[in-house]
Amino acid sequence: MSKAKAAIAEATGETVPVDYDGTVYTVPTPIDWDIDVLDELEAGRFTRALKLVLGADQYDAFKAAKPRKLSDAVQMWDAISTACGTGSAGN
User: Fold this and answer.
1) Where exactly are the structural domains of the chain?
2) Cα 79 versus chain centre, distance
3) Distance between CA atoms of 78 and 80, rounded to whole angstroms?
4) Which one of 4, 23, 27, 83 has the minimum C-beta count within 10 Å?
5) Per-residue buried b or exposed e for 23-61, using 16+ beta carbons within 10 Å of the residue's own CB
6) Across the chain, how many H-helices and E-strands are there?
7) How crowded is the C-beta side of 32, counted as CA atoms within 13 Å?
8) Residues whose CB is less than 8 angstroms from the CB of residue 10 and which lie 6 or more positions away in sequence, other chains included
9) Looking at 27-41, 62-76, 77-91, which range is the least confident one?
């Protein structure tokens, strides 16, 4: 999703589609993320933040796809960041 489309989704309260490994997830725009997401990221609890953004059902679906490495979670976060227009999680 382009930054312009992400901004429109944010302004209208829509969710953002995130394509990761052939599955499309939906997440709220960053402006609608629960404050707990920021707290978890600040505390370094990356997977907890990912679960909060995806929601329990989608996080379970992500885990059912058998991600086994930190790089899998980072790639998912990068897909979310890209779709939301917030940039990359980095390495």
Assistant:
1) 3-84
2) 7
3) 5
4) 4
5) eebebbbbeebeeebeebbeeeeeebbbbbbbeeebbee
6) 5, 2
7) 18
8) 29, 30, 31, 32
9) 77-91
The H or E element spanning position 23 is strand 23-28
pLDDT the model gives residue 19? 95
pLDDT at 91 over 50: no
Task: Give how far Cα 54 sits from Cα of 14, 64, Å.
Answer: 14, 14
Task: Determine the average pLDDT of the residues in 33-61.
Answer: 94
For tokens 């980095």, the residue is 90
User: 19-23 — which CB contacts under 8 Å span 24+ positions?
Assistant: 19/79, 19/83, 20/62, 20/75, 20/76, 20/79, 21/65, 21/75, 23/61, 23/62, 23/65
Angle at 29 between CA 79 and CA 86, to 5 degrees: 50
**Is the model more confident about 8 or about 85?**
85
